[in-house]
Amino acid sequence: MISILHYNEQLVYVTFSVSCITGPTIGVFVGGIITHKLGGYSDPKAFSAVCLAGFLTTIVGIPIPFVDSYYIVTPLLWLLLFFGGFMMPALTGIIISSAPPNLKTLSNSFAFYCYNIFGYLPAPFLYGFV
Prior knowledge:
130 residues, mainly alpha, 77% helix, 0% strand
């Protein structure tokens, strides 16, 4: 936003920090509440809600690289982070509930390993390069 869109450094840092803190946090709480109201993560409705949130994440994420307005990119980024956080409670529950009892700990650990290896580790360089 600073080098490409040429917006004020301080404005970008504050807005990006607020988006990165509030979007996923509110998304996790709202996702947990909605998943609970739909009958919990073992209910098929929870899977539908996760699929819808994933679809919405894609819809708001696709235009971000092509938009040159700070005031459009910022809400899209917030929504992207919100929907990503929204999916986490249901997805974690679905992963744990689908594993046999003796493998629940391993499946949860493996899931978080995959989040870190394929999501967080390459993000700064690889996804920025792409």
